[in-house]
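tool_log.txt
---
The assistant was asked to compare two proteins side by side. It first ran the structure predictor on the initial sequence, then on the second. Raw inputs and outputs are pasted verbatim so the downstream comparison step can read them without reformatting.
(1)
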Amino acid sequence: MIRTGTILLTAFLLLAQGAVFAGTLELTSEQTAGLELATTTVEHHKATSVVQVNGTLMPDQNGVFRIGPVVDGFVMALNAVANDRVTKGQVLARLRSNTLGQAQADYLEALSRFEVTRASQERVEGLWRDGVVAESRWIEADSGYMAARAALDQRRRQLTLAGLSNEQIDALKDRPDRIADFELVSPVDGVVLSASVETGQMLSPGETVFRVADLSRLWAEVRIPIAALRRLGTGGKATLQVNAYPDDSFTGRLESLSGEVDADSQTVSGRVVIKNPGGLLRPGMYVRVDLTGDGQAGLMVPASAVFRSGDNTYLFKVLGPGRFEPVPITVGAELNGWVPVRGGVVAGTEIVSKGVAELKSHWQYQGGK
């Protein structure tokens, strides 16, 4: 008789706290009020995968320029140093070169000879057409003109190879005082990364004097686990954050993936391209990168609705006020906060999306597995 009374008392207590009948969890209104539950419905949804990696910013190598003389030169004046911001065409240094001076003098001499022979050719041609001189005299004058023009073209090419622009070459005739002088200029708007030069220094042809970078576009070198490669493709969106600007995010795209896997880390190198018009980002900064992968459509539930118990995956189906059913489901890999559902529920099913951990505790306390 005592044993029977104990069993009845236990059953009464279970009914008072919420009980499991045929897999159903029932809670009193007081119990559910303290759980802060939220519900949603199983629906078709398209979710994208996000792969989180770390990386380091570096200059876009297509925007880095090495600047130096193509002829020997003596540094007369230094107009820029490392870390200076410069504009396209800005003079970085002024040099003087005996080699260039000789080439310029040869050009001016060839130009003078060309102008003389051209005037002579035009005069003799007029006389020949008027019958004043023989044709052989005109042929001789024309040959001299053609030879002078060829010599001038050759001298001009030498100056072009020495780094002078057409405008600078054309200005030589009017500025003989600047003969032998030339300038190193910035090819882009950017920042001087390095300047290995001093006033009075003698420079050799091909020597790198300045490194200037256009930092309006940067690269982020990232390492991507090979397990994530199937979800990523070039051209995908990348969202970056840096410690220097915790409230800001920067957008780029995954431009390329290495064809080689690092044997030690089992990762591949990826290159993310980021626009940096305001110049907030700088080479060398560490970045956190979210790489957006391919999307997947189908039945989805929020990841917060799914829980594990033993070897199975469940969600709580809403049966009514205070009544829930733990339903075993088959799922795919989580995609950016969403879980694809392969089986176990159908579209339109109302489920619990918040407070699942508390419900699970009640379920397990009452005998759930």
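(2)
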Amino acid sequence: MKIAAILLALPMAALASACATGSSGTAPASDAAAPVAHAKLLAADGSPRGDATVTQATDGLHVLVRAQGLTPGMHAVHIHGTGTCTPPDFTSAGGHWNPTGHKHGKDNPAGMHMGDMPNMIAGADGSGEMEYVIPGGTISGGATPLLDGDGAALVIHAQADDNKTDPAGNAGGRVACGALST
């Protein structure tokens, strides 16, 4: 009986230990005091297209985007430098967030904007999710604040970003936009 109890307790202890150690993924460690910005993503007609959360962590800004209602395939996702999303084309969000003055795209030898992020894949049902860490970014304050005087917005584009063409990666029109706020 004692052996059976021990054999039953070992897997349960291992499971509890695994749950308590946290994740080794890109999500930041839980910190109730960490600054967070949110955005509700909307299409030009005002219909919901998802949400975005940006959380300050020691290694930069952790971005989580959940989208729906997109055409299946690859979509560019960027943070734009103005926190305004006026339909129908969302050009009010301005260009990519670029406080360091670099060129566009991870494949561009001259830079990449801080607002450049990986493409997101929307599945056959039109939904997609992506996580990304923007090294060195801050929600507010410091040399590279996301929410400066004119704010910032998260934008999903109609097509994939080619990761090199300046200034916007040939990503097509803006199909969803959400102004970030705390």
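---
observation on (2): DSSP finds one helix and nine strands in the chain. The beta strands are 36-42, 48-57, 60-67, 73-75, 77-80, 120-122, 128-134, 153-157, 174-179.
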